[in-house]
Write a structure and sequence with these properties.
Number of domains: 2
CATH class of the largest domain: Alpha Beta
GO molecular function: ribosomal small subunit binding
Number of strands: 9
Function: Required for dimerization of active 70S ribosomes into 100S ribosomes in stationary phase; 100S ribosomes are translationally inactive and sometimes present during exponential growth.
CATH topology of the largest domain: Double Stranded RNA Binding Domain
Subcellular location: Cytoplasm
Largest sheet: 5 strands, mixed
Keywords: Cytoplasm, Translation regulation
Organism: Yoonia algicola
Shape: globular
Number of helices: 5
Helix content: 25-40%
Strand content: 35-45%
Distance between the termini: 47 Å
Length: 191
């Protein structure tokens, strides 16, 4: 497994890196089949340390957790506890997902854009319909079943997930509704 442990404007010592690798290996060995890479980023927000951990599994799923605390080790521990809880909750589904799938999840390339917020556009006197592109990035769209997409969205603590539906290869969206339920958008061509 490949690890990338870094700090945003703070130094990360070798002892912390070893602690992070040891703890993540222990958590992932209990629940996940074959993790491929882990990204852990430490930063400081006011008086608190923030730890953001993202682990990519060989099945294409991604686990993500964030922790905050006054101590840097405690911030990682809070993050790892959240990841442990997420993976424990989905342990059976992760194992079933791994057994059913002989190949890793297929990923398609896509463009991702950040648009200028509406408030900023209105201040300039620009028409808010023609928002300016602030940033362009590449992203990956996974090919999943609807159940896998919901599980991926919940594991990553994301409000929305765009995916390619394995059944008909169309682009779909799952999202967390205001009422707490999950919404699913499945556009169909009429014809």
């Amino acid at each position: 497994m490949r690890y990338q442990i870094s700090g945003k404007q703070i130094d990360i010592g070798a002892a912390l890196q070893t602690h992070v690798q040891t703890e993540l290996e222990e958590i992932l060995s209990k629940y996940a089949g074959r993790p491929t890479e882990a990204y852990v980023v430490f930063s400081k927000s006011g008086h608190e340390y923030v730890c953001e951990a993202v682990v990519h599994l060989s099945t294409g799923l991604t686990a993500q957790a964030t922790g905050k605390a006054n101590e840097i080790y405690a911030a990682f521990d809070a993050s790892s506890e959240k990841m442990d809880k997420q993976l424990r909750r989905y342990k059976r589904r992760l194992k079933d997902h791994h057994k059913e799938r002989s190949q890793p999840v297929e990923l398609s390339d896509a463009g991702s854009y950040i648009l200028e917020s509406r408030e900023e556009s209105d201040d300039d006197g620009q028409d808010s319909v023609n928002a300016m592109i602030v940033a362009e990035m590449e992203t990956k769209i996974p090919s999943l079943s609807v159940g896998e997409a919901v599980m991926q969205m919940e594991i990553a603590s994301a409000p929305v997930l765009v995916f390619r539906n394995e059944k008909h290869n169309g682009v779909n969206v799952v999202y967390r509704r205001d009422d707490g339920n999950i919404g699913w958008i499945d556009p169909r061509s009429s014809g």
